[in-house]
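The instructor's notes for this session suggest beginning with a concrete chain rather than abstract definitions. Hand out the sequence below and ask the class to guess, before any prediction is shown, which regions might be ordered.
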Amino acid sequence: SVSSNTSNSSLEENSKSLGSSNFTLNLFLKLGEALRKSSLARREEMRNHAIVALQKSFSLAQDLDFSPTNCMNCFNLVIFAMVDDLHEKMLEYSRRENSEREMRSMERTLEIAMELLTNVFLQFLKQISEGPGFRTFWLGVLRRMDTCMKADLGQYGTSKIEELVPDLLKKMITQMKEKGILVQKEGTDLWEITYIQIQ
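After discussion, reveal the predicted structure:
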C-alpha cells in the first residue's frame, strides 16, 4: 500500500469541478490518481515506472480536447500533488539518520517528476495559457520549482535538483516567449512577476 498526504477521496471531491458528465475525462483522472499514488511506492523502479506511464498517459490525452480549466485541474490533482508529495518524502528521509540512500533514491524520482511537470506544461501550454487562472497557475509552477531547488537536505548536503531546475525553467520560459505568452505588454504583469520570481 502507498501512503499519500492527499485524501483518497480527493478525486471524487474535485471531479465535480471538471464536469461529472465528462466520463472520459473522469476515467483519465482516475488513472492519473492511481499512477500518482504509485509514484510514492517504496521501490524506486516502481515509482519511476509510474511517472513514465503518467507521461505517456498525458501524451495520449492530447486527443481528449481538454479545456483550459480541465488542464489546470488535472495538474492540481495529479502533477502538482505528486511533486509536492515526493518533495515532502525526500525531506522526510533527509531528517533520518542513515537514510541517505533512500533520500537520494527519492530525489531521483522527484527529478523525473519535475521533468514530467515541465513536459506536460509545455504540451498543454496553449490551453493552459488561455485559462482565466493562468497567472496564479504559473506562479504555482514557479513556487514548486523554487521549493524543490532550495530543498534543505540537512546533513546530506545540497540537492541535485538545484542543477536541474534552471534548465527546466529556461525550457519553459523560452517556449512561452516564442508563443507570445510571456512578453512585456500593458494590462498584464506576468513578465515582471516572472522576472522577480526567477531571480
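Then share the key points. The longest helix spans residues 68-94. Confidence is low (pLDDT under 50) at residues 1-8, 17-21.
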